Amino acid sequence: MFSDWPLLSLVIWVPVLGGLLVLATGSDKNAPEARMLALIVAIVTFLLSIPLYTHFQLNTANMQFVELHPWIETFKVNYHLGVDGISMPLILLTTFMSVLVIIAGWEVIQFKAAQYMAAFLIMEGLMNGVFASLDAALFYVFWEAMLIPMFIIIGVWGGPNRVYATIKFFLYTFFGSVFMLIALLYLFFKTGSFSIMDFQQLHMSMGVQKLIFLAFLVSFAVKIPMWPVHTWLPDAHVEAPTGGSVILAAIMLKLGAYGFLRFSLPITPDASQAFDGLMIALSLIAVVYIGFVALAQKDMKKLIAYSSISHMGFVTLGFFIIWTISKNTGSYHGVVMGIEGAMVQMISHGFISGAMFLSVGVMYDRMHTRMIKDYGGVVNTMPTFAAFMVLFAMANAGLPGTSGFVGEFMVILTAFKANFWIAFLAATTLILGAAYTLWMVKRVIFGEVTNEAVKELKDINGREFFFLSILAITVLFFGLYPAPLLNVMDASVNNLVQHVTTSKLK
Amino acid sequence: MNFPLPNFLPALPEIFLLAMACLVLLVDIFLTDRSRGATYILAMTSLLGVLVLIAISFSSTRITTFSDTFVRDPMADVLKMGIAIAAMVTFLYAKDYLREHGMFKGEFYILGLFGVLGMMILVSAHNFLTIYLGLELLSLCMYAMVAMQRDSAIASEAAMKYFILGAIASGMLLYGMSILYGVTGTLDLGLINARLPDVQDKVLLSFGMVFLIVGIAFKLGAVPFHMWVPDVYEGSPTAVTLYLAAAPKLAAFAMLMRLLVDGMGSLQGQWQDILILLAVASMAIGNIIAISQGNLKRLLAYSAISHVGYLLLGVLTGTTEGYAASMFYALVYVIMTLGAFGMIMLMSRQGFESDRLEDFKGLNERSPWFAFIMLILMFSMAGVPPFLGFWAKLSVLKALVDSTGLLWLAITAVVFSVIGAFYYLRVIKMMYFDKAEDVSPLVASGDMRMVLSANGLLVLGLGLSPGLLLAFCLATIVSP
Q1: Which residue has better confidence, A113 or A135?
Q2: Contact present, A283 and A317 (Cβ < 8 Å)
């Protein structure tokens, strides 16, 4: 029944228009209606995104659910949507997390609740647009427009230093993006079209490829973020309201990684190969150095923010290690596994980081502090919550049986085939990740109750139990049975590897 | 002696406007202050008439008349319609503001109408003399309008500064024209362009060209001829600021096109270098100095300077695509500026200008709707999609990337646009993130609210489907 529905347009525009509708409910007098409406819109969008999975054809790398209409004919820009095995799981992740974020903000946000809910819904639609766009200009429009609701979310509902954080966030990402715009315009000039598929067919000289790669790199590295352009993320995370942190960590960071898969690797494979040493080095710095930085944090949100950067280092490592693998072993299978491992890591990190930020949010709503030293012995008063928190912390540390393990294991395994020392450094994350996460859990959840306020804490209510348990189930499910995810991406990753391993030099 | 009458038909809108402006002048003398509304209605009717006259006689080809001193082509028609609409919106926004500030006098509308006439002549000029005629008619009206608030010291200072610097710029322009007349022996732009390759004295020619560009740069407000812009924007009553910030930009763009492209198209390689210099300096100075402004009118003045830089980027490519991109940019800029100054006037009340950034604090609490409109306008000016301003930037960038050797200029332009984004974000920060100091609800008449909302939504709506306007601009640039 869904085969002739414009599903991708629906998952983009239902939340955007729904968000505008929520906005129209006006002042905080109507907040209950606004919340209910927002929840309905988010759930409808999630339900609309499910057929993308159930009707997805596994054995093809072609774009599916394609919609193509002319948009701006003067510039040959088309409204061109479609998904493959790489983008489809990310759209599902977005629609899924958005529902949880709406629920998480339910009672917590009392100030301008309608605008809060609307901002998240509009952002959900725009993020889906980024993942679904097959036209570079359309992609760029969604990519940039997404900054606006996030800017407002951090700025209006954020912490005390929110203005600094949100302007830093906006300018950093805006600065990165404009270079991508120049690269896209150049590619348009060369191909005469804005279609990403056409870009991927283009052959260019090495010098040009390198420049285009660097332009993309600035944009995507800021978004992921990679060391040394990561400094906006801890600020933004700390100041953002819980929902904002969740969306930032779970989805926005994935956009940068997605950009590498959609643009950098297939359009400039030779330049990617030329720069792979640099990229591996930056990834390892993120994994190891940022891991140590996380260890030193006193603020829970900041700790998780740094842990996100460290985990995203794994993703970029998986992408750029493939040439070392194919050079050292010639194993095609290893290359595919590296990229698939990185992608599983992306999805899994979306769930886990979202869960961690939601857990911190649960505590923050009660205590209004994020400092580790203010807690201790939370397990005594919040046993159910402590169980969830420990589970998510284990997943964040990459414990086997949770989704966090699968991706990291795949990447480390391929790294061992490529180079022992790379693998060795990458594997330190298992130790570091366990160290900073579990040490935080020890200080926050266990131990003596030192703060009087902790004694007064109430355990989680039904609403909080609901979203935490859903995430717990998801984390365990993909940890024990990642096959559905791998099956979906297999054909597309194989196709990507074809693109990446064929030289596009002129 | 045979003395045939010229063909008056192509100039009918101008002739109509001249007649109407004289009529308004006469009628206004007999009006008391209470019935001054009639002047407003008459002025609006005249502009509407001009709009209709241009629309029904829209010329798809190039017609010249009055011994080739006056040209009518699609570009001229589109720009004139833009000017008329911008002037109408200005008059509408200005109505309440002028009433509240005790300046609701006929002079504003009469000078405004004559100014529009000057702009229209400038747009259609095809001869040094007609260009100068249109320019001076426009400038004199604007000098007088800036000085209208005569008991305000800051306004008088602004008017004085504007007049003196404007006179110098006119002098430069005239000097350049006389040199070019000397070397080519004609005042006709088409003939000048044809005779330029045969000119022996290249040095003299360069001098003439430079003086012309100085004159144009002054009128556009490009760095280093921008000094008047912030002072005049800040010193003038906001209604007058809006008048001289919006429509004259279209006229100045036309003047740029007429003089450089029609008149000196064969020297494109030479004036390109000068324009690159002007564009980069304008983007740099405009965007960087705007960061430290606390007065919104001054901030928008520096923003205007930087936008002129972007506008020049399209023209300097010397391609049809580039000219169309610049024309699109000019039209988009006018739409955004109208909205931004409209917001300042909406916020102002009796005896209160509301032009400081702080006055926008907490606007989201006072009026979420107009905060949203201002949000659209500011993000659009910053060039963030999906708003209209993004497509304007994109079109000039695309023209740059498409022409050889100008890629570096495109990169410079985007870097400055990131710097520029900061001060627009500051305005949004004031509206959304800060608490309101003044919680009184906004007071404005219904028509003002409606047109301002439409103005903001147009920036969003055209941003979602810019194709038509873009194609329109491309179609109107007919190579001479």
Answers
A1: A135
A2: yes
Alpha carbon distance B113, B111 (integer Å) = 5
Helix A113-132 to helix A87-104 angle, to the nearest 10 degrees? 170
pLDDT score recorded for residue B118? 95
Contact between A306 and A234 under an 8 Å Cβ cutoff? The reply is yes
Tens-place pLDDT, residues A289-308: 998 999 888 888 899 999 99
Place of tokens 């005594």: A380
Q: Peptide bond before A51: cis, by omega within 30 degrees of 0?
A: no
The two three-digit tokens of residue A92, written as one number? 């599902």
Cα A148 to chain centroid, rounded: 18
For residue B480, what pLDDT is reported? 46
Per DSSP (E only), the strands in A41-154 are 64-72, 77-83
CA distance B128 to B133: 9
Chain B residue numbers touching A178 (CB-CB < 8 A): 414-415, 417-418
- Residue A476, judged by CB atoms within 10 A of its CB (0-12, 13-18, 19+), counts as middle
Instruction: Write out chain B residues lying below 8 Å of A164, CB-based.
Output: none
Tokens in use for A301? Answer: 């949100």
What are the b/e assignments for A6-34, b being 16+ CB within 10 Å? ebbbbbbebbbebbebbbebeeeeebeeb
**Per-residue model confidence (pLDDT) at position B214:** 92
Poorest-confidence range of A440-449, B40-49, B78-87, B188-197? A440-449
The DSSP symbol for B259 reads I
Taking residues B194-199, report their average pLDDT. Answer: 88
- For the record, the structure tokens of A200 come out as 């991927």
B128 touches chain A (CB under 8 A): no
Cβ contact (<8 Å) for A185 and B433? no
Contact B176, B216 (CB under 8 A): no
Q: Is the ipTM of this complex over 0.95?
A: no
What mean pLDDT is predicted for residues A475-479? 89
B 347-406 residues with CB below 8 A of A?
A: 364, 368, 375, 379, 384-386, 390-391, 394-395, 397-398, 401-402
Let me know: does A347 contact A251? Beta carbons within 8 Å. Answer: no
Among candidate residues A93, A86, A8, A65, the one with its CA nearest the CA of residue A492: A86
Scanning the structure block, which residue is given the tokens 């009529």?
A: B23
Q: Do B394 and A145 touch (CB under 8 A)?
A: no
Task: Report H helices in A296-331.
Answer: 300-320, 322-328
Find the helix or strand (DSSP H, E) in which B64 lies.
strand B63-65
Cα-based angle A169, A173, A178 (whole degrees, multiple of 5): 150
Tokens of B202: 């290249």
Q: Is B458 helix (H, G, I), strand (E, B) or coil?
A: helix
Q: Which residues pair with A70 in a beta bridge?
A: A78
Kindly identify which residue of chain A lies nearest to residue B433, measuring between CA atoms.
A156
Cβ A200 vs Cβ A266: under 8 Å? yes
H/E element holding B347? helix B320-347
Q: Tell whether B422 lies on the interface with A, counting CB pairs under 8 A.
A: yes
Residue A180 to residues A87, A173, A177, B53, Cα–Cα distance (Å)? 20, 11, 5, 45
Most confident of B82-86, B201-205, B236-240: B82-86
Alpha carbons B272 and B209: distance in angstroms, whole number: 11
* Structure confidence at residue B243 as a pLDDT band (50, 70, 90): very high
pLDDT in tens, A3-51: 678 888 889 999 999 999 888 887 778 888 888 888 999 999 999 988 8
B159 — pLDDT class (breaks 50, 70, 90): very high
pLDDT, tens only, A160-173? 888 898 999 999 99
Q: What is the mean pLDDT of chain B?
A: 89
* Token output for B169: 């710029």
Give the bridge partners for B64, in sequence order.
B71
